[in-house]
Amino acid sequence: MQKLQLLAKRAIPALILLYISTLLAQSAHPLLIKWSSQLSYLPLIALAIAGLIALQFSRSRMALFSLMLMLPYAAQLWPEISWLQLQAPPLSLLLMACMVWLIWDKDRGFALPNALLSIAQISLAAAVIYFVFQQLSAQPLDWLANLIAWLPQLHLSAFSPLETGLYAGLLMIALVRVALSPSNNHCALFVSLLLLPMLQYPGKQQLLIGQLAILTIAIVFLIGVIMDSHNMAFRDELTGIPSRRALMQYVQTLGKKYVVVMADIDHFKSFNDTYGHDVGDQVLRLVASRMTKVTGGGKAFRYGGEEFTIIFPRKEPGEIKAHLEALREDIANYQMVIRSPDRPAKKTKQTAQSRSKAKPKPTTSSGKQSVQVTCSFGAAQRSQTSSEFMAVMKQADLALYDAKKAGRNCVKIRA
Ligand SMILES: Nc1nc2c(ncn2[C@@H]2O[C@H](COP(=O)(O)OP(=O)(O)OP(=O)(O)O)[C@@H](O)[C@H]2O)c(=O)[nH]1
């Protein structure tokens, strides 16, 4: 469900861009036509810039995509380059097969062995689709025409049923990858696949449609890289929630009234000793996702280790206590389903003690196990004596210490 939400969040702006560029191209406004002939190199420049920036961020697949996308556009721009003028199968279909292969691969960089491997893989993908195309084009394909009749006729209608079917099939294969791993990078690559057939749209607006498609792709690539670098800077790598750096940025925006909460998972060292660090990581992720669901206007950050910070802007302790209690209960009652640890638990004195605290359930036949953890919370508000953020945080830390001393799994507030 979370993956679907993420995919929708990333794909919807891209689809809107796709729709606008298609509408623009189909309108064939005189200004656009004029612009199209005067700035015919602009899409190549935009792709080159997007590719170079992608390279700077080690997005080698995006850089390769940019390079490959130049080919069908160059074929339109310079019809005299005969080796680019593939008719059956169209060049963009071969490129799409290569790109779908790459989207299932990973960013390998351009070191010689990896570059050779990528070239071998994409050549194989192109050869396979070439072979499939040759085989199928000799067959009667009424069944395929019927099968794809329901597809939106937006920009594929100008292609033969076989081409449309192969484009759609390859897109579905890529979509599975994006749905399984909906990163900014994959969404950007997928959008370029969606737009790729537009580069070989037959008809008199071919160049204009190709230009708008490429500019859209370059923009989507740049947005993908910018969003990725923003995430790298401000999201915690393990849990995906805002990091300590994001917290420090956020406190600049706080007014004179706010509450700082420090939260800490109880007995987490014992938990790690019992289940191993990998399971500890899974639990950290699950706890983090509960922390972000805090109600009452709180915003959660991973402060570091097994510690989290929650800020309630414009609130007083009395207003947040119930929300913290609800969060504490929510975490304590949450049956966290985890993949079973690969390595056996260490048999230490501490381990035996922690078993009762972490309440493990027997491993199920699916190799999954459910565990529960608790958290302690300490809160403090900005006051005359603690007006600096770090001073308020120190007070919240002391309150957390009070909560630990009081037996853990509770909320303490420093006046
Ligand atoms: N798996 C995992 N463990 C972490 C991570 N960061 C910190 N830890 C562990 O968290 C544990 C924190 O232990 P302590 O500070 O001793 O506290 P505790 O065992 O939670 O005990 P109390 O806080 O007193 O309830 C250490 O064992 C760290 O190794 C992480 O990113 N992943």
Automatic annotation (TrEMBL):
<dbReference type="Pfam" id="PF00990">
    <property type="entry name" value="GGDEF"/>
</dbReference>
<feature type="domain" description="GGDEF">
    <location>
        <begin position="256"/>
        <end position="415"/>
    </location>
</feature>
<keyword id="KW-0472">Membrane</keyword>
<feature type="transmembrane region" description="Helical">
    <location>
        <begin position="207"/>
        <end position="227"/>
    </location>
</feature>
<keyword id="KW-1133">Transmembrane helix</keyword>
<keyword id="KW-0812">Transmembrane</keyword>
<feature type="transmembrane region" description="Helical">
    <location>
        <begin position="84"/>
        <end position="104"/>
    </location>
</feature>
<feature type="transmembrane region" description="Helical">
    <location>
        <begin position="12"/>
        <end position="33"/>
    </location>
</feature>
<feature type="transmembrane region" description="Helical">
    <location>
        <begin position="111"/>
        <end position="133"/>
    </location>
</feature>
<dbReference type="InterPro" id="IPR000160">
    <property type="entry name" value="GGDEF_dom"/>
</dbReference>
<dbReference type="InterPro" id="IPR043128">
    <property type="entry name" value="Rev_trsase/Diguanyl_cyclase"/>
</dbReference>
<feature type="transmembrane region" description="Helical">
    <location>
        <begin position="39"/>
        <end position="55"/>
    </location>
</feature>
<feature type="region of interest" description="Disordered">
    <location>
        <begin position="338"/>
        <end position="371"/>
    </location>
</feature>
<dbReference type="InterPro" id="IPR050469">
    <property type="entry name" value="Diguanylate_Cyclase"/>
</dbReference>
<dbReference type="InterPro" id="IPR029787">
    <property type="entry name" value="Nucleotide_cyclase"/>
</dbReference>
<protein>
    <recommendedName>
        <fullName>diguanylate cyclase</fullName>
        <ecNumber>2.7.7.65</ecNumber>
    </recommendedName>
</protein>
<feature type="compositionally biased region" description="Polar residues">
    <location>
        <begin position="362"/>
        <end position="371"/>
    </location>
</feature>
